[in-house]
Amino acid sequence: MKTLWKVVGISALAFTLAACNSSAKPTKNTTNKSELTLEQVYNKAVERQENITSASATMEMTQHTTAGSGEEAMEFSIDSQMTMDVVVDPMAMHLSGSMSMSDIAGTGEEPASMPLEMYMDQNKGFFMKDMSSDIWMKFPDSDFDDILAQTASSADTKEQLAQLKPFINDFTFEQTDDAYVLTLEAEGERFKKLIEEEVEKSMQSVGLGENPLDQLQIDKIHYIVYIDKKTFDTTKMNMDFDLKMDIEGETLAMTTASVITYTAFNHLKTIDIPQEIIDNATVIDY
Question: Where are the domains of the chain?
Fold first, then answer.
């Protein structure tokens, strides 16, 4: 059970970084036809990402998790709201927001809300504030490469779009007045590759004797990608999925709904970590 809870915690952080709902109402192509095909819109969106050097975004995510079975089973919900600034080269990030956890099994307890703030710089490391003690912590350098790789891929919209390319013909193609809307409804083993890379990254530091992906079951995947008609910026990405994993004989079932909205592009040159944080951070020892 201890390993299972570590997986839950690391998965929550991984999917927060990866992901990282729209009120827009798409209209069918039959009533408002686009002059571009689905593949042309996709290719232009990927090409546009070559010119993105920085971005700001807001992110909302809800996770419902059932961990374990029998009398030890726990069911809870985590709601996250984040704002994020990212610079691509050199990779740097500032993330702030809050997470609230509630026991949805019916204990009657009020959700516990926890503020979050993180800085990351590929040359200086990864820093997270412990809000309970008001102390900044630095992750060990031995863990930083994995965190950097995961954050870079999560922030890189081009890479996220590239992961969708093998399934481009499975998308439906719609549009609003100002956006192309690409939607994917999927289930089964064929679509496992869409999220298995993120799951694998989140499990690397757990030290399991078995490959968790061997025990991964995808029940549902739902993607919506919004692409601006004028600029071909990817302005919003929704991702919902249901999955199950067996971890050392215990079952982890997770339902995740997330949306990341990009609010600005190419407006930042650097993200500077305050020197006071760098000088005084406590290195995590575990």
Answer: 2-20+26-283
Beta-bridge partners for 187: none
Which amino acid, 195? I
* Partners of residue 64 on adjacent β-strands: 77, 255
CATH code for the structural domain at 2-20+26-283: 2.50.20.20
Cross-strand pairs, 62: 79, 257
pTM of the model: 0.74
What DSSP letter does each residue of 214-271 carry, written as one string? GG-EEEEEEEEEEEETTT--EEEEEEEEEEEEEETTEEEEEEEEEEEEEEEES--S--
Q: How many residues does the chain have?
A: 286
Tell me the average confidence (pLDDT) per consecutive run of 10 residues in the chain, 286 residues long: 38 42 34 70 86 90 82 82 89 90 61 83 90 87 64 56 76 92 78 60 50 67 90 90 77 87 92 95 81
